[in-house]
Amino acid sequence: MPSKPMNSENKAVRVRFAPSPTGDLHVGNIRTALFDWAYARHTGGAFIFRIEDTDRERVTDEYIKAAQDTLKWLGLDWDEGPEVGGPYGPYLQSQRMRIYDDWASKFLEQGDAYHCYCSSEELEARREAQKAANIAPGYDGKCRSVSESDLARYKSENRLPVLRMRMPEGSTTFKDLIRGDVTFDHNFVPDFVLVRGDGSPLYTLAVAVDDIMMRITHVLRGEDLLSSTPRQIRVYQAMGVAESDYPAFAHLPFVMGQDNAKLSKRNGEVSIAWYRERGFLPEAICNYLALLGWAPGDDRENVTMKELTELFTVERVHSSPARFDMKKLEAINGDKIRELKIDEFLERVTPFLINDGIISGSSGELAIVKMALPIIQERIVNLAEVSQMLKFLFVAKFEVEADSLPKIMDEQSQVVLRASIQALETLSSWDHGSIHSVLRTALIEELALKPRIAFGAVRIAVTGSHISPPLFESMELLGRDRSLARIKKAIS
Ligand code: GLU
Question: Which among 94, 358, 359, 436 could disulfide-bond with 365, CB atoms 3.0 to 4.6 Å apart, if both were Cys?
Fold first, then answer.
């Protein structure tokens, strides 16, 4: 077996994606997952999927399942994690509580951490005082030493202590692979809580312990977590980890909405489930998100998953925020749809057509859909549009859509429709070329109408809508009898 490529410290690369799914994964999460995955695949390392679910009130089984499903749908396969297991499991933090507990006790024993009995009211009052005195807010270290008498009083009041990490004087500097050296002055990193009064671990404890225990070599994650890094490093120190064994950090730039504020529900669609329901292809989402903060090194915008894994390096990730652009995602989605072979296109749209009640999925229906797909492949930007485009071929009881109806009721449209019937009835062969030719003669040449007006009325009469696939091809697919009957109905 070939040996795995090594990173600069001679360790096989191990990258993790560690969401806390409190809802559907969003664009920012997936961009992170994609970069983690691409980096692991690029280096021949391992991609580890860890669920950070210590807060089981907010992270539910349903969201965990959905997160797994989304990663699978996108093609981001993991080497270790839920379902597949691995040598450093379990990979759900809720199943690792004993491990955090043991480390917390060790930190307390070593004097790296201490019990803090301050109540939230006391903390709040001191925070206010800090603000008033213009001091950086944060824990003031009051419980670093507690007198015997105070301790007795806290106990008599049944106060449950939290466990706090002692931050030493000084600063923490680490090399961020995207930002270079980053330094945090500990004056702005107060002693922080590791374990709540009820015994539950906080993110900083669990994430740091797991990254070390799971032998993670590279932490690629969102910029929002940059400021938690000195605290995590403090945990590594208390664990006795040598600096050379710390993971390397790379904080990915924020994803902004069009208004330059951080992308959120407020200024754009963020849920990946939303894109999936609307018929965005997983490969288009990955292609587009890959370009959010990373560039392949040339100006290409069409990147396959294979190319991404070949070309992805952290050095090519930008440090400045990336802007989410829906139009660009749609353009890429349209391109990916056009790249699909017809059989694959059919396979992808069938669930949408069934879901929308357009077809039941019989082989006869699928044969018709397959014939229709080439004429719409050029025209759609997402798969969900197909139902609207093709429903005219399948409706049991045909009606013109209410908003299109007035457009064929006027005198001119009625003249067009009557002339169309006359012309079409002369046709011996019902193919789109012949249909086009007789209608052009009858409507454009003889009635001297503009194509948009002439063919627009026929389009509505035949397909029921002013939005449809190309008209003559549609009429060919629909067949002579149904086409003529629909035009006649529109006349009466
Ligand atoms: N679980 C954290 C979150 O979802 C991310 C942890 C990390 O990447 O360090 O925000």
Answer: 359
**Is 489 labeled as catalytic in the residue annotation?**
no
Best mutation site among 203, 233, 246 for ligand 1 pocket (most ligand atoms within 8 Å of CB)? 203
Residue 9 has pLDDT above 60, yes or no: no
Q: Cα separation of 439 and 346, whole Å?
A: 31
Average pLDDT over residues 455-473: 95
Residues 6+ apart with CB under 8 A from 125: none
Give the residue carrying structure tokens 């951080």: 262
**What is the CATH number for 360?**
1.10.8
Q: Are residues 423 and 472 located together in one domain of the fold? A: yes
Tens-digit pLDDT profile for residues 15-48: 999 999 999 999 999 999 999 999 999 999 999 9
**Bond prior to 90 in cis (omega within 30° of 0):** yes
Strand partners, 116: 162
Question: Do 380 and 420 share a structural domain?
Answer: no
pTM of the entire structure? Answer: 0.91
Domain span holding position 374: 340-392
Question: Does residue 388 sit in the same domain as residue 413?
Answer: no
Find the mean pLDDT for residues 290-301.
Answer: 91
Alpha helix positions (H), 111-176: 120-132, 148-156
- Residue of 155, 175, 265, 489 marked active site: 265
Structurally, the chain folds into a number of domains equal to 2
Residues 428, 379 share a domain: no
